[in-house]
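As promised in the previous annual report, we have extended the structural survey to additional targets. Below is the entry for AEC family transporter.
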Amino acid sequence: MGSLVSLLVPLFGAILVGAGTRVLKLFDAEDSRRMSRFVFMIAMPFAGFEFMRQSQVDGEIFVGLAAGYVLSLALISFAVFILSRSILGLTIREAGAAVFASTCGNAIFLGIPIAAAVDGWASPFLILVLFEGTVVFAIASALMTWPEGEAASGEASVLTTVRQAVLRSIRSPIVVGTSLGLIASLVRFEPPAPVQGFLGFMAQTAGPVGLFVLGLNAADLLLSRKVGELKGAALLLPFKLVIFPGVTAGLVWLFTGDPTATSVAALFTGLPPAVASIVLASVYRQWIGGVSGVVAIGTSLGLLTLTAYLTFVLPG
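The corresponding structure token record, generated without further manual editing, is:
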């Protein structure tokens, strides 16, 4: 219980401070956007590099973890896509936004600080970050830019859309930083002590600032009443918070038999929906209101389900 409290108090403390500053109007949505950019572009790439560089990667666990996650991702994405089209009446592009909101969790601002605080969780968690940062972003980008009308019948147009989506995803700063860290770990790269100090110093800013921004974003969504379409949240949140983590954990356990990998897989896929879902939906102008509702409601519910999950798992 002591370790759980030691983890949750700093976690929720930083989130509440961020939310409080928004309520008191010390920071606004523009401040949140700028700080989010710092975390995404600067702090988290350093954190990803350092966590992976200092981790030992088990090849067998890596394969089983990746296979379980990718298979579960394919199943959940397909189910959400079909249901979004049939029940919510979304277009292909709008359904892409729904798929992204249902499969991309708040790994950057919320997940990494948790994984970094639990012994043995950082390496498998960051492996999943790599796959989410490439596969999930590629799927969502491809769907949200899917050719329409006459262009939809052109095979070359579809292939171009997919290729561009993949290229965008692999250029993500976090993907690049984490990939370089994985390479550094595999070749046993040890930078000089002053360089290590600099890398660690930059990496340490990611967790507190990321959690602060998460609280600021959540408060801004609720205060702005950007809850969007409740029907969409009711349909998608069970997939994001319950079904996706359950299926992923079951498959990872089947493929690896490793309790740590299974616990991390459940944590990773059960995180609240990422604020990046709203950003991506806004960039492509697809189902912005619905995605905002999923994220706003999902953040509150997700923090509750996350706390329940950690309460159950960490003592074991």
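The domain at 2-313 is CATH 1.20.1530 (Na+/H+ antiporter like fold). Residues 250 and 262 are 8 Å apart (CA to CA). These points will be discussed at the next consortium meeting with the crystallography subgroup.
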